[in-house]
Amino acid sequence: MASLEDEEFPSTPGKVKIERSHHHHGFVRQFSLVFSSNTGTMLIWALFLFALTASFLSFHQTGRTYSYFSWADRRWENEVRMSAQIQRPRGMSVLVTGAAGFVGSHVALALKKRGDGVVGIDNFNDYYDPSLKRARQAMLKRRGITLVEGDINDAKKLSKLFDVVAFTHVMHLAAQAGVRYAMENPHSYVHSNIAGLVTLLEVCKAADPQPSIVWASSSSVYGLNDKVPFSELDRTDQPASLYAATKKAGEEITHTYNHIYGLSITGLRFFTVYGPWGRPDMAYFSFTRNILQGKPITVYRGKDRLDLARDFTYIDDIVKGCLGSLDTSGKSTGSGGRKRGPALYRIFNLGNTSPVTVPSLVGILEKHLKMKAKKRFVDMPGNGDVPFTHANISSAQSEFGYRPATDLETGLKKFVRWYLSYYGYHGKYVK
Ligand SMILES: O=C(O)[C@H]1O[C@H](OP(=O)(O)OP(=O)(O)OC[C@H]2O[C@@H](n3ccc(=O)[nH]c3=O)[C@H](O)[C@@H]2O)[C@H](O)[C@@H](O)[C@@H]1O
C-alpha cells in the first residue's frame, strides 16, 4: 500500500499545497482552451476524454472529493476506520502525527491499549535511521494501528483523513526535533514545526466537528532563562536555538488558532525524553552505541567547566502526561471557521523535577553496560545548547495528576535492556 501511495501522492518537502478549488480552475482553463481551438477533432477528443474521466470518477465516487485517488480507495478507508474505532465507553478517536517517532509510537500504543481509536501519520524522513521508524510501525501494526505515510504539510491527505474519520482529538507529535541539528538544516525546522503545524491547524479548524489538539512543545523554549525550576509563567522570549524558536513560535501560532477559531489547544513542554525505542540522535542513545563499540564520546561542559544538566524524563511518564492532557482537553468550540465560545488554551511542563548532570548520565550507562566510556570533555560549543533544565510540574500535577515515577537510573536500565535486545551487544545493525 505504501509504495502505491508514494507513486500516487508523493509528499516531498516544499511541495506546493493544492487547494481543492485549484482542481476546478485547472479544469475550466483546460476546457476554455479546447473551445478556443477551432478544430472539430479537438472538440470530439475533448468530449471523449471528458466522458471517460466522468465515468471513471463516478465509478470510484463515494461522495468524497478525493476518493478517486487510489491511496484513498475503499480498502484504505476501511482500514483507517477500523484503526480509529473506539472500543471503550466515552473513548476518543485520536489522530497521532509523528506516530512512527519515539513519543508518537508510545502514545499511540497506550491509547489503543485502553480502548481508544488511533490512526497515525508519519513522513518517515531520514533525520535518523528510518528502519527504526519502520520497526515501530510494525509494532503498531501488530496492535491494529494503521499508520498512514504522509507529511503534515500535505493538506489534502490530512483533510481526507478527517473526511473518513471524525477524530475527536489530535495528538500532534510530528516535528523536526534536535537542538544542534538546527544549525545544519534550519529549513527542516521551518518546514515541519511551522509550516506543517499551520497546515495541520488549518485542517483541524475546518473539520466539523473540530478536534481538540494536544501537541509537543519543548523545554528548550526556556532558553537562557536561569530561574529554576522552570515554571510555565517564566519568560520564554530568549531561545538559544532555532529549534527552540520554532517551538516557541508554535506556542504563539496555536494561541491564535485557539483565539480566533475556538480550537482547544494544549502545548506540552517535554524535558529531554528518553527510553526504549528512543531517538538515536539523542545523547543517552549515541553514548550507549559508542560505549558498546569502544568509540569515544564527547561530553560537553559549560562555562567555567561546569557540568551540563538535564531534567531527563522517562517515556512512560511522558505518555501518562499526554493521556492526561487528552483526557482533560475539553472540546473545541468552533465550526464553519468561527468560534462559538471560549476553548481551553493550556501549556504544561512535563519533566521529572530532578536534573542529572551529563557525566552522571554517562556513569549510569557505564554501570548498566558494564563497560567504561572513553570520555572527551569539550567546552560547550555555541550551537544552541542550554546549560541546564529543571521542570516545575505543579501545574500538570494539579490539572491531571501528573507525577513522574521513574528515576534516571531505573529508566536507563530499561533503555539498555531494550537497546541490547534490539541491536545486540555488538550493535552490528547500527548504521
Ligand atoms: O527538552 C527538550 O525539549 C529537548 O530535549 C532534547 O534535547 P537535549 O536536552 O539537548 O538532549 P540531548 O541531545 O540528548 O543532550 C543531552 C545533554 O547531553 C549533552 N551532549 C549531547 C551530545 C553530545 O555528544 N555530548 C553531550 O554532552 C547536551 O549538551 C545536553 O546537555 C531533545 O533532543 C530535543 O528534541 C528536545 O526538544
Automatic annotation (TrEMBL):
Catalytic function, reaction form: UDP-alpha-D-glucuronate = UDP-alpha-D-galacturonate
Compartment list: Golgi apparatus, Golgi stack membrane
Top-tier EC class: isomerase
One Gene Ontology term, aspect cellular component: Golgi cisterna membrane
Domain of life of the organism encoding this protein: Eukaryota
Membrane-topology descriptor: Multi-pass membrane protein
Residue ranges constituting the NAD-dependent epimerase/dehydratase domain according to the UniProt record: 94-328
SUPFAM superfamilies found in the cross-reference section: NAD(P)-binding Rossmann-fold domains
Protein EC: 5.1.3.6
Gene3D superfamilies tied to this protein: NAD(P)-binding Rossmann-like Domain, UDP-galactose 4-epimerase, domain 1
Residues spanning the membrane: 42-59, 91-111
MF-aspect GO terms: UDP-glucuronate 4-epimerase activity
Listed InterPro entries: Epimerase_deHydtase, NAD(P)-bd_dom_sf
Pfam families, sorted: Epimerase (PF01370)
Keywords: Isomerase, Membrane, NAD, Transmembrane, Transmembrane helix
Subunit structure of this chain's protein: Homodimer.
Similarity field: Belongs to the NAD(P)-dependent epimerase/dehydratase family.
PANTHER family, per the entry: EPIMERASE-RELATED (PTHR43574)
This protein's name: UDP-glucuronate 4-epimerase
